[in-house]
Design a protein that fits this description.
Strand content: 15-25%
Number of strands: 12
Distance between the termini: 38 Å
Order of helices and strands: EEHEHEHEHEHEEEHHHHHHHEEEH
Radius of gyration: 21 Å
Largest sheet: 7 strands, mixed
Bound molecules: nicotinamide-adenine-dinucleotide, zinc ion
Number of helices: 13
Helix content: 40-55%
C-alpha cells in the first residue's frame, strides 16, 4: 500500500492507494475519530459491486451505516439529488459527528462531497473513488459541487475529505472507455509536472492498458502526489492550481457544444491537450517532436487526438470558451507547455492562434498545408 499526504494544515489528510483496501475501510475510518453513524452515497452501477463490502467493513469497526443509491451518470449531479440525500440523512438522524462515504466515480464524489459540505453546515466525508479519473483527480483537492441546467459545476464549495481510499481492485469492473478517459488525466500530469512520468507512460502503456496492478499502483500514486502538491500550494485556485486545467479550455468547450453527449470528459481533454500542445509549440517553446510524442501517447491510449469543425461549430466552440471561467479581458487564457513537465498559466492566446491549432489537429486528409518555411514532415500519425 502507498500513502500520499495532502498538506493543508488542520485540514490535512491521507490518500491510500493499493489493492483490496475496501476491506480495511472500517479501521481506517475508526482512526479518524468520527461519529458512529455514516451514510454511504453511491450510484446504481457501483453499489452492486462494492456497497456490501464497504458496509461490512464499516459494520465490523462498529459503524452504523445507511446506503443512499443514486442513478448513475452526470445528470444525477443535480440539486434534486442533493435534496434527496438531505432528506434521507435527516430521516436517519445523521448528526454533526456523522460522516459520509462517497463510493463511486467523480459524479458521486462531487455530489456526496457537496452534501457533506452543506448538511448541518458541514459534516466530515471520506472519498472512495472507483474510476481512474476519480482516483487520480476528482477525489483529491476538495472541490465539490453539482450542475445547473445552465452549466456544469455552477454550484459548489471547497470541502476537503478526511481520507481518500483508492482501491485499485475497484477499477477491474470499470468499462474500458471510462478507464481510457481516466488515462487522459494521467497523461496530463506527465505533461504539466513530470517528464519522467511521461516517459514511464510511454514505456508502460501496454501494461497500464491491461490494468496490471504493479504498473498501475506507482502511477496512480504519482498522479495523486502531483495533485496533492499543487493543491497544497494553492487550495482555492488563486494561481498554481490552474495548471491542472491544461487542455481544459478547449476540452470544456467541446463538451459543452456537444451537449455533454459525444465525448467523455477524458476524451474531450485529450483533444484539448493536443490542441494546447500545438499552441504551445507556436508560442511557448514546446518542440514539434514533443508535440508528436504527446499526440502519439494519447492515440496509443485509445483516446481521440483529432477534431474537424465546420465554421458554425468553430464559432460555437469560441463562444463556449468565452463562457468558461478562464477568460479575462476578452481573451481566452491558456495553460501552455514550455517543455514536457513545465507549464505556464494565465497566458492570453489570440483567436487566430487557436484557429491555427485547430487546423493542425484536423484529421490528416482535411488538414491544410503547413505554413511556408515550417516543415512538419516529421509528424507522426
Ligand atoms: N472535483 C474535482 O476536482 C473534479 C475533477 C475532475 C472531474 N470532476 C467531475 O467528475 C465527474 C466525472 O467523473 P467520472 O469520470 O469518474 O464519471 P462517473 O462518476 O460518471 O463514472 C463513470 C461511469 O462509470 C461507472 N462506474 C464508476 N466506477 C465504476 C466501477 N468501478 N465499475 C463499474 N462502473 C463504474 C459510473 O456509474 C458511471 O456510469 C464529472 O462530473 C466532473 O465534473 C471533478
Ligand atoms: Zn479534467
Amino acid at each position: 500500500m502507498r500513502t500520499v499526504n495532502v498538506s493543508l494544515g488542520s485540514r490535512s489528510y491521507e490518500i491510500k492507494i493499493g489493492q483490496g483496501l475496501l476491506s480495511h475501510l472500517g479501521s481506517d475510518c475508526a482512526r479518524l475519530e468520527l461519529g458512529k453513524r455514516c451514510a454511504i452515497i453511491s450510484d446504481r452501477n457501483v453499489a452492486p459491486h462494492f456497497a456490501e463490502r464497504v458496509q461490512t467493513a464499516l459494520a465490523r469497526a462498529g459503524f452504523e451505516t445507511i446506503l443512499i443509491k443514486l442513478p448513475a451518470g452526470e445528470s444525477a449531479k443535480s440539486l434534486a439529488s442533493v435534496q434527496s440525500c438531505y432528506d434521507q440523512l435527516a430521516r436517519h438522524r445523521l448528526e454533526r459527528k456523522s460522516f459520509i462515504v462517497a463510493l463511486g466515480g467523480g459524479v458521486v464524489g462531487d455530489l456526496a462531497g457537496f452534501v457533506a459540505a452543506t448538511y448541518l453546515r458541514g459534516i466530515p466525508f471520506v472519498q472512495v473513488p472507483t474510476t481512474l479519473l476519480a482516483q487520480v483527480d476528482s477525489s483529491v483537492g476538495g472541490k465539490v459541487g453539482v450542475n445547473l441546467a445552465a452549466g456544469k459545476n455552477l454550484v459548489g464549495a471547497f470541502h476537503q475529505p478526511r481520507l481518500v481510499v483508492c482501491d485499485l481492485a475497484t477499477l477491474e469492473t470499470l468499462p474500458p472507455r471510462e478507464y481510457r478517459a481516466g488515462l487522459a488525466e494521467v497523461i496530463k500530469y506527465g505533461i504539466i509536472r513530470d517528464p519522467a512520468l511521461f516517459e514511464q507512460l510511454e514505456h508502460d502503456l501496454p501494461a497500464l492498458l491491461e490494468r496490471v496492478p504493479k504498473t498501475l499502483a506507482p502511477i496512480v500514486a504519482r498522479c495523486c502526489e502531483i495533485k496533492a502538491e499543487v493543491v497544497g500550494q494553492d487550495e482555492t485556485e488563486g494561481g498554481l492550481r490552474a495548471i491542472l486545467n491544461f487542455g481544459h479550455s478547449i476540452g470544456h468547450a467541446l463538451e459543452a457544444i456537444s451537449k455533454y453527449g459525444k465525448y467523455l470528459h477524458g476524451e474531450a481533454i485529450s483533444i484539448g491537450q493536443v490542441a494546447a500542445a500545438e499552441i504551445s509549440s507556436t508560442v511557448a517553446g514546446l518542440t514539434p517532436q514533443e508535440v508528436d510524442r504527446i499526440r502519439r501517447l494519447f492515440v496509443r491510449a485509445g483516446l481521440p487526438a483529432e477534431l474537424k469543425l465546420n465554421s458554425k461549430q468553430r464559432q460555437e466552440l469560441f463562444d463556449a470558451m468565452r463562457l468558461d471561467k478562464k477568460v479575462a479581458g476578452g481573451k481566452v487564457h491558456f495553460v501552455l507547455a514550455r517543455k514536457l513537465g513545465t507549464v505556464i498559466w494565465g497566458e492570453p492566446v489570440p483567436d487566430a492562434l487557436i484557429l491555427h491549432a485547430l487546423d493542425r489537429i484536423a484529421p490528416r486528409n482535411s488538414r491544410p498545408a503547413a505554413p511556408p518555411g515550417k516543415s512538419r514532415s516529421n509528424r507522426a500519425g
